Amino acid sequence: MAEQENIVLEAKELTKVYRGVTVLNQVSIQLKKGHIYGFVGNNGAGKTTFMRLVAGLARPTSGTVSLFGSQSQAELERNRSRAGFLIEQPVYYPDMSVRENLMAQAKLIKGADKAHVQELLELVDLQDTGRKALRNFSTGMKQRYGIAFALLGWPELLVLDEPLNGMDVHNMDEVTAILKRLNEERNITIFLSSHLLARLSALATDYIFLDIGRVVEEISAAELREKAGNADLEEYFRKLVSK
Amino acid sequence: MRLIRAEWYRMVHSKIQWGITAALLLLSFWMLDNKRMAHVSGQEMLLLLWQNPLPLMWSGVMLAVGGFGSSFQERCWNGGIYKGQRRMCLLLSRAFFYYIWGLLIQVAAMAIILTKYQVWGQILGLGTGFLFPRMLFHGFFGIALLTPPLLFSFLFRDVFGSMAVSSGLTFLIQNMLGSEGEGFLPELMEHFYPAARMLKLHFWMALETRAMQEAFLLCLGYLLVGLLVSVVVFWRGELK
User: Which of residues 61-80 of A touch B (CB under 8 A)?
Assistant: First the structure.
């Protein structure tokens, strides 16, 4: 029971087929509370598809997804409010400012008010953007907004698909530090995919490797360091998928 | 309730929404006003306004594309889904404001015209007991006219497709309306399109007449079928 309470996301034999092409094939994953999971795979491996299924943007062909122990579809939908998502690109109304976009979304969340929005803006350093419409922001700034958006209501789980896309080195350092701090201070479980494996290796406590729709390995960061020896994450992954 | 509050916030703070509103108000005023207005009584003016569905039809096209089609394109629906909102609730809360906003634009344009020709005294002299049920009925017609663009937005799920089909059909209908043409399409429209029905009804016709009741049922059918299909399509489909 205590073990079950620790599991924030569980996928059981999750499969997704698009027009005869199997994008995800019997993927079974369990994410434990308080960990940072690096979700690693080549382009087209199925990482984004998996996250879209968790977020409710698509429906699985077969298999199940459970968030925070949800037992039914209705409970799964309700429990989604306990997670925050940033998938492919941030969600925003292009003609509205950062603050307005966050406030519009905050109306959906109990307890999220102006002060909370201000707190998040300061966290991602977007508090001085004024009334500038989001459509005029750079990619990196939009991603920072996307992280603030995902953090509305202080979720217990963050699902981030390539959150460091379009960011310069300085921004990547800041965002990485923010994620690490959130995990340590608020015990937020983080599930993120990234092609920037060096960045990921500085953050993740566990890894899930995906290749052609299948999980090829699940391993903790400590175990990987022992197994890989002098090889870095990139080399390890390359060897793993070439087998 | 939270969804309603979120939708209200979005509408009030969206510059695009206000831009579309201003453009539609001008367009509606231009479409409703004509030279005949200066020479008719307040009651006749009300009939002319009642029997001109074009502003509502075009309001539907623009508001649906701005409120629904663009949300598919910009992935704005995803935000509500991420926060555990059901798709049907997302659709209905936005549809609620879509209908109200569309009708308010129509009412505002009509009010401007009535003010321009200074016939408020004659209008209000008809009595609220006469006016109010008819305004409600007119509003219901309006909702039926606003439904097809909403449906197309959910069927095509983008700005271009929604705009192309909605405006194309609206142009076609605009040309066929009131033309008394023969043929399959004009006859079909006469029986099954609310705007064509509106042209055959008088504003001060008794609401209990068969023609009014049939028109009411037709509008109700449009609303129910349009919303039902939109809900099903939205619920079943995948989002970007």
Answer: 77-80
